[in-house]
Design a protein that fits this description.
The structure holds two protein chains of two kinds. By secondary structure, chain A is of the alpha/beta class. Chain A folds into two domains: 2-29 and 251-294, ATP synthase, gamma subunit, helix hairpin domain (Helix Hairpins, Orthogonal Bundle), CATH 1.10.287; 35-247, ATP synthase, F1 complex, gamma subunit (Pyruvate Kinase, Chain: A, domain 1, 3-Layer(aba) Sandwich). Chain A is built from six helices and six strands, in the order αβαβαβαββαβα. Chain A has a five-stranded mixed β-sheet, sandwiched between helices. The longest helix of chain A has 77 residues, at 218-294. Chain A is elongated and about 115 Å long. Chain B has two domains: 2-83, F0F1 ATP synthase delta/epsilon subunit, N-terminal (ATP Synthase, domain 1); 86-131. By secondary structure, chain B is α+β, with helices and mostly antiparallel strands. In chain B, β5 and β6 form a beta hairpin. In chain B, strands 1, 2, 3, 4, 5, 6, 7, 8 and 9 form a nine-stranded mixed β-sheet that branches. Chain B is globular and about 45 Å long. Chain B has helices at 88-99, 106-131; strands spanning 2-6, 11-24, 27-31, 38-41, 44-51, 56-62, 65-69, 72-76, 79-81. The chains are: A alpha/beta, B alpha+beta.
C-alpha cells in the first residue's frame, strides 16, 4: 500500500497548488480588467491634448520647445525600467530586464554617464544581485499607478533635463499592443519626438475647425502643453506596464493550473493502477493459499 | 451647454451647465451659453459650475487647459479636488516648499513660478471654503 499512499499524497498537494494558481489567475483577471479600464479612460486626456496641439499648429504657432530639440551634448542619460513588484508572471520581468540591461550597455557607450532608475521590487533585486548601481528606485507602483506619483518622477526628470544634467531619457517597459500581444520596448521620452502622442489618438482627434481665441497666446499654451504631454506619456508607460503585468500573470497562472490538471489526471491513473495491482496481488495470494490447502 | 472635466486618470465631471467659472492663469474667466471658441491656460483655484437647474458646485482644479468650442466646455486639468479635500495646512505647506525651490536658470524659475501659482491658488480656495 506504500506506493499508492505516496501517490495519493502527491496528488493532494498538487490539488492544493492548483487551487492557489487558479485563485491567482482569477485575481489577475479581475485586476487586468481594472487596469485596462484605467488605461482606456486615460486615453480621453491624450486625445484632447493631441487635438489641442493640432489646433495650435493650425493657428500658426511654431512648434518648438527646449524639450523637443535633439541635443548635441552627450553628457548624461537616464534609463527607467518598469518591472513588477511581484513575480509569478512568467517571463514578464526577465524579458523587460533583458531589454533594459541591453539598452543600458549601449547608452553607457554613447554617453559619459548613465543613471539607471528602476521601478518594481523585481527589478531592484535584479540590480542588487548584479551589483548594478541605481540612481533611484520606486516600489510604490502596483496594479493602479497614480498620476500624482508619476508626476513626481516626471517633474524630477524634467528639472534634471532642463538643468542639463541629463540629455536623454528613455523608458523600458512592456508596451500594450493588444490583449494577446505585448512586447518589451525602449522608448525615448526626452527629447520628445512628436507631440501628437499616438498616431491613432492624433487621427481620431478630428478638430471641428473653429477659429479659436488663445489666452494668453498660442506660444504660451504650447510651452505648457509640451511638459504636460511628457508627463502624460510617462503615465501611459506605467499604465501599459500595469496592464501587461496582469496579462502576463494571468497567462502564467492559467498555464500552471492546466499543468496541475494534467498532472493530477496522470497521477490518478497511476494511483488507480497501483491500487488495482495490489488488489490483484492479494487475490492471487488468497487463491494460491487456498489451493495449497486443498492440495 | 456641456461641461467636461478630464484628468489624465479619468473623466471626472461630465454634466450640463448654464454657467462655468474657470480659474485662468491671470484670473477668473466666466463662460456662458454661446461663448466664442477659446483655448486658454488654467492657473489654480476654484472651478464653479452652475448646472441647468441653477444648482452650484465648486471644485479645486490645478494646471491644464480650457477649451471652449461650440456648446462644449472641456477642461483638461492635472487634478480635481472637492472642497472638503482641500486643507489650509496642506496649502500653507506647499507654499513654503514652493518658496524654497531653486531658480538658477530660466526654466527652473518657470517651474518655481508654477509651483507658487498652484500653492497660492490652493491657499486662496482653502481660505474661502474655510470661512463658509
Amino acid at each position: 500500500m506504500a506506493k499508492a499512499r505516496a501517490l495519493d499524497k502527491r496528488r493532494k498537494s498538487i490539488r492544493n497548488i492548483r487551487k492557489i494558481t487558479r485563485t491567482m489567475e482569477l485575481v489577475a483577471t479581475a485586476q487586468f480588467r481594472r487596469a485596462m479600464e484605467r488605461a482606456v479612460s486615460a486615453g480621453a486626456y491624450t486625445q484632447r491634448i493631441a487635438a489641442m496641439v493640432a489646433d495650435l499648429a493650425r493657428a500658426g504657432a511654431s512648434v518648438s520647445h527646449p524639450l523637443l530639440e535633439e541635443r548635441q551634448a552627450k553628457n548624461g542619460a537616464a534609463l527607467l525600467i518598469l518591472t513588477a513588484n511581484r513575480g509569478m508572471c512568467g517571463g514578464y520581468n526577465s524579458s523587460i530586464l533583458r531589454k533594459g540591461h541591453h539598452r543600458a550597455d549601449e547608452l553607457k557607450g554613447e554617453y559619459e554617464n548613465l543613471r539607471l532608475l528602476i521601478s518594481g521590487k523585481r527589478g531592484i533585486s535584479y540590480a542588487k544581485d548584479r551589483k548594478i548601481e541605481l540612481a533611484a528606485t520606486y516600489d510604490q507602483f502596483n496594479d493602479k499607478p497614480q498620476y500624482d506619483e508619476v508626476v513626481k518622477i516626471a517633474d524630477h526628470i524634467l528639472s534634471e533635463y532642463l538643468a542639463g544634467n541629463i540629455d536623454r531619457f528613455e523608458v523600458a517597459y512592456m508596451k500594450f499592443i493588444s490583449v494577446s500581444k505585448q512586447t518589451p520596448v525602449v522608448e525615448t521620452l526626452l527629447p520628445l519626438s512628436e507631440l501628437a502622442a499616438d498616431d491613432e489618438a492624433g487621427k481620431s482627434a478630428e478638430s471641428n475647425g473653429a477659429e479659436y481665441e488663445f489666452l494668453p497666446s498660442p506660444e504660451s499654451i504650447l510651452e505648457e502643453v509640451v511638459p504636460t504631454a511628457f508627463r502624460v506619456k510617462l503615465f501611459k508607460c506605467f499604465l501599459d506596464a500595469a496592464v501587461g503585468e496582469q496579462i502576463a500573470r494571468r497567462v502564467a497562472m492559467k498555464a500552471a493550473t492546466d499543468n496541475a490538471d494534467s498532472m493530477i489526471s496522470i497521477l490518478t491513473t497511476t494511483y488507480n493502477r497501483a491500487r488495482q495491482g495490489q488488489i490483484t496481488n492479494e487475490i492471487i495470494e488468497v487463491v494460491s493459499g487456498a489451493s495449497a490447502l486443498q492440495g | 451647454m456641456k461641461c467636461i472635466v478630464v484628468t489624465p486618470e479619468k473623466t471626472e465631471i461630465d454634466r450640463e451647465a448654464s454657467f462655468v467659472v474657470v480659474p485662468l492663469y491671470d484670473g477668473e474667466y466666466g463662460i456662458g451659453k454661446g461663448h466664442t471658441p477659446v483655448v486658454a491656460r488654467i492657473g489654480a483655484g476654484e472651478l464653479r459650475i452652475t448646472s441647468a437647474d441653477e444648482e452650484k458646485a465648486s471644485f479645486f482644479i490645478e494646471g491644464g487647459f480650457l477649451e471652449v468650442s461650440g456648446e462644449v466646455v472641456s477642461i483638461l486639468t492635472d487634478r480635481v479636488l472637492l472642497p472638503e479635500q482641500v486643507s489650509l495646512e496642506e496649502a500653507e505647506g506647499r507654499l513654503q516648499k514652493a518658496k524654497e525651490l531653486p531658480q538658477t536658470n530660466s526654466d527652473l524659475a518657470a517651474m518655481k513660478e508654477k509651483a507658487l501659482v498652484g500653492a497660492r491658488g490652493m491657499l486662496l480656495a482653502a481660505r474661502k471654503w474655510r470661512k463658509k
